Amino acid sequence: MKRHLISAADLSRDDAVLILDTAEELARLADRPIKKLPTLRGRTVVNLFFEDSTRTRISFEAAAKRLSADVINFSAKGSSVSKGESLKDTALTLEAMGADAVVIRHHASGAPHRLATSGWINGAVVNAGDGTHEHPTQALLDAFTVRRHLSPEASGVGQDLAGRRITIVGDVLHSRVARSNVHLLSTLGAEVTLVAPPTLVPFGVESWPCEVSYDLDAVVGKSDAVMMLRVQRERMNAAFFPTEREYARRYGLDGDRMARMPEHAIVMHPGPMNRGMEITADVADSDRCTAVEQVANGVSIRMAVLYLLLGGNESAVAARPEESK
């Protein structure tokens, strides 16, 4: 792996499979009485969040603590950032405190890349979501979830997603999750199709390694996994569709559409959900929806990323670090 994780496009197939296999091994910790390893003892991980977050921030914190790292949670609200402090000065402060890794979420696309290439800090930088650009660890946990369901033999260790058909539906224009998933899933061999209203399809999407459709009903019946995206009203500065009811009718996943999916197919959502808009309550609460499972898998994936960036480039399967006493 490279020194930082900024974009899913930076990961080769071997890199991605190594992370997934390492996460598979680390996921077994959940079944142990003591869920901690001493792997990153003495290391400091800083969660640097300039945007609100629940799942991602808590997931990274849990991952670091389960690897015995020291964790510092930094929120822009209530910090010197609210007084006008720049990203550079914040980074220099973290460097002075001895941060070994900085997990950053920022409203500006490119902020993690700037942090990683500026020389302001010497530690590893992990992108936890930047603007509408990317969210690589979300894509990794999504791929991990798909592989567990569609390659159940030994949870697919060593395998990619060759030939699997993944459909991503909704607000692609504002979705960093969609961008990262397209890159990663295609790297792993999956066939990705984006489904969205024409107004919510990004400019230049024809260069992405995926297909584009405007008809959900035409593709839902041949999908191995359907990933519903949240409609991001907070990023919209114009009317991108007539009404919420019209959007739900054409691009929402309800019980009738789910019934037309193959029996083995799963429904995914990165959260938080707009129930009744992109997904109905009966689908969200069904056994086929993996939204809650994705949250749990996120801890394992982020443990794997931190382990590989800070602990070494060997798989945890080979290293088999012993349980902390």
UniProtKB/TrEMBL annotation:
Keywords: Pyrimidine biosynthesis, Transferase
Residues annotated to bind L-aspartate: 83, 176, 230
Domain Aspartate/ornithine carbamoyltransferase carbamoyl-P binding: 3-147
GO biological process: 'de novo' pyrimidine nucleobase biosynthetic process; 'de novo' UMP biosynthetic process; amino acid metabolic process
EC number: 2.1.3.2
Highest rank taxon of the organism: Bacteria
Binding site for carbamoyl phosphate: 55-56, 105, 135, 138, 271-272
Pathway: Pyrimidine metabolism; UMP biosynthesis via de novo pathway; (S)-dihydroorotate from bicarbonate: step 2/3
GO MF terms, alphabetically ordered: amino acid binding; aspartate carbamoyltransferase activity
Quaternary structure (record): Heterododecamer (2C3:3R2) of six catalytic PyrB chains organized as two trimers (C3), and six regulatory PyrI chains organized as three dimers (R2).
Protein name as it appears in the record: Aspartate carbamoyltransferase
